[in-house]
Design goal:
209 residues, alpha/beta, Rossmann fold, six-stranded mixed beta sheet, two-stranded antiparallel ribbon
Length: 209
C-alpha cells in the first residue's frame, strides 16, 4: 500500500531536478566585438527594447538602465523619448537619441523561440517478498514510465552601437521559467557582464568608485 506515494515521490524528484536544470540563468552563446573600435568607454547609453508588448519593453528598458547605472554608466530608457509603440522611422529615432544626448545605443530583439524537452527516467521497483505481497502490490504496479517536460528557450540578440558603427553584438539563450521579471533580470546581468569583459563598460570596481 506504500507504492503509490513512493512512485509519486520519484516522479516529483525527477521533475524538480529537470525544472532546476532548465531554469538556469541566461547564457551568452555567441558574441562579436569590432576589432577596429578604439574609442573610450561610453558615458551615456540609450536602451531600446524591441517588443510589441509595451509593458515588456518598458520593464526591460528600466531594468537595463538600473543595472547600467549600477555599473557606473549613465543610461536612459528609449520610451522617455519614443513613447509610441511600434516601429518609428530613422529620422525619428536619430532625433530621439540626439535629444537624449546619448553617445551609444543598446538594442535588444527576440530572434526566435525554440521548443526543448527533458525526459525523466522511468522507475521500476522490485516486488515485495512473499507471494501475497507481490499479489497486492501488483494492483498498483511497479513501473513508472518516463515523463516528458517541455519548455521554451528564447533566443535574443543585443547590439551596441556608438551611433556610427556596430561595436558589439551578442546572442543569448534564456529559459522560460514562467517569471518574465526574473528572466529579464538574468538577461540584463549576462549582457552587462559580457560588455564589461570586453572592456566596453567600467569594471565593477570602477563602477563603485
Amino acid at each position: 500500500m506504500q507504492l503509490p506515494p513512493l512512485r509519486n515521490l520519484t516522479f516529483t524528484i525527477a521533475l524538480v531536478l529537470c525544472v532546476a536544470g532548465c531554469a538556469a540563468s541566461t547564457k551568452i552563446v555567441n558574441q562579436w566585438t569590432s576589432p577596429d573600435y578604439t574609442s573610450p568607454r561610453f558615458k551615456k547609453i540609450m536602451v531600446i527594447g524591441v517588443s510589441k508588448q509595451a509593458s515588456i519593453r518598458r520593464t526591460f528598458e528600466d531594468e537595463f538602465v538600473t543595472k547600467l547605472k549600477a555599473a557606473g554608466v549613465e543610461a536612459l530608457p528609449s520610451y522617455l523619448y519614443i513613447p509610441e509603440d511600434g516601429q518609428v522611422d530613422e529620422s525619428r529615432l536619430q532625433a530621439a537619441v540626439k535629444q537624449a544626448g546619448a553617445d551609444a545605443v543598446i538594442i535588444t530583439r527576440l530572434v526566435r523561440v525554440d521548443k526543448k524537452s527533458e525526459v525523466s527516467p522511468g522507475f521500476y521497483q522490485p516486488g515485495p517478498v512473499g507471494f501475497y505481497g507481490g499479489y497486492s502490490a501488483a494492483w498498483f504496479g511497479y513501473y513508472e514510465p518516463p515523463r516528458v517536460y517541455q519548455y521554451d528557450v528564447y533566443i535574443s540578440e543585443t547590439s551596441l552601437y556608438d551611433m556610427n558603427q556596430l561595436v558589439w553584438a551578442g546572442t543569448a539563450e534564456t529559459t522560460d521559467t514562467g517569471d518574465i521579471t526574473k528572466e529579464i533580470q538574468g538577461y540584463v546581468v549576462a549582457v552587462i557582464e559580457a560588455l564589461k569583459n570586453r572592456n566596453l563598460l567600467p569594471s565593477s570596481k570602477t563602477g563603485m568608485t
